[in-house]
Amino acid sequence: xxxxxxxxxxxxxxxxxxxxxxxxxxxxxxxxxxxxxxxxxxxxxxxxxxxxxxxxxxxxxxxxxxxxxxxxxxxxxxxxxxxxxxxxxxxxxxxxxxxxxxxxxxxxxxxxxxxxxxxxxxxxxxxxxxxxxxxxxxxxxxxxxxxxxxxxxxxxxxxxxxxxxxxxxxxxxxxxxxxxxxxxxxxxxxxxxxxxxxxxxxxxxxxxxxxxxxxxxxxxxxxxxxxxxxxxxxxxxxxxxxxxxxxxxxxxxxxxxxxxxxxxxxxxxxxxxxxxxxxxxxxxxxxxxxxxxxxxxxxxxxxxxxxxxxxxxxxxxxxxxxxxxxxxxxxxxxxxxxxxxxxxxxxxxxxxxxxxxx
Length: 358
Description:
By secondary structure, this protein is α+β, with helices and mostly antiparallel strands. The chain is built from twelve helices and ten strands. Helix 9 (288-313) packs antiparallel against helix 12 (342-352).
């Protein structure tokens, strides 16, 4: 039987990552980065990759990685969500890595696993698994075209680019024009990427590689959303125990207890859905597509609701720029359309289980 509880090793990994992020991704520091021209935290990324080897969790040991599973990667993403960490872990260590795992490119895969090279899949962040995705033209052996909404392209060293000839190409990020786009979540920048006679190295077939990458991205994104929701609930409960009104803790009022109890139930259910998706990815389960669709259909509304409740229940202080709640609300909102909306995943789930709307 599948055991969705966290193992001792996973809990130890969580503690180590949380301690590291406490040192590198405190709320004032993240807020300051969103106001700068360099939102990515290179020091945190180096600590996660060089110090802990986390960029290679999904890569087998014989291909240059750590040989762990999606369950361990999910634990890391939970903690990154709790810290709203401005690092390209989801885009490079999960999505780009999964695309390369479907190709014969062990040298590039090992570079991403080391963390010294950052990769980004040149497919819009909004693209759901199974959805059509734009590609660039191949003219005289070079790439031509434009792709938009590419997450973390600005910090990437290599881009994995689908082309109209059906192939996936590796492109040096310095060989393209990257134009920043204004994202809702400033900790995960988006960009337009322009190819103008850009050389590329053919890696393999784009279709299966992109599908695999987007499915893993969607499945593990639920763990990041769990981290966001769990932080929002935990911090709100803590604040309402301390904040007093009419000489009693605000959390003692029954109406607020009901709201928190409902939110707790939602977060617990989200944890189950996210863990199930991570476990299904780890085992390559036959019902993997169903597990991912269920997780994403449920995760986005819960994460957004948790962040909205945190904002409201913190009252005036929650509306200030100095308080980090706005970071979590923006991350939750941006994640709600990343790798497909909840509605798109519900439609996909209906097809998978043959329960289409009349």
